[in-house]
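Researcher: Structure for this, please.
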Amino acid sequence: MRVRYFLAVFFFLLVAVLFSCKPKADNSHRLLVYTPHGQDLLRDFVSRYKQKYPEADVQFLDMGSRQILERVRVEKNRPQADLWWGAADTTFQIAAEENLLAEFRPSWADKVPELARDPQSRWFGTLRNATSNRLQQ
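Model: Predicted structure, token format:
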């Protein structure tokens, strides 16, 4: 009787362990972007990106650029975002000096003036802010 009881408990625990071990989710097609640009602008970019990469799961975390900087600092040893899109050049330079940004050279890098990019290809300006005339990335 004890052997049956032991085998029943063992079998139950074995089944419970097997069902609790789910395979890791495949995030290979996920693109997570931290940005302060707002949903209206983002919708257009997601639509255009998904035309080229239909299997992509594009996700945006919309918050202010200073909040993004703080979040990237916290995530330094375990980055979550694939891309940070939008901040003043000074904010990006702070992040670059703190080694929070990875080097990446886009195909259009040579079209960006030297004053609008990091010499080590850690950030590139993409638009000029009309109110302050500062470069935005």
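Researcher: Any notable elements?
Model: Residues 69 and 91 are 7 Å apart (CA to CA). The longest strand covers residues 30-35.
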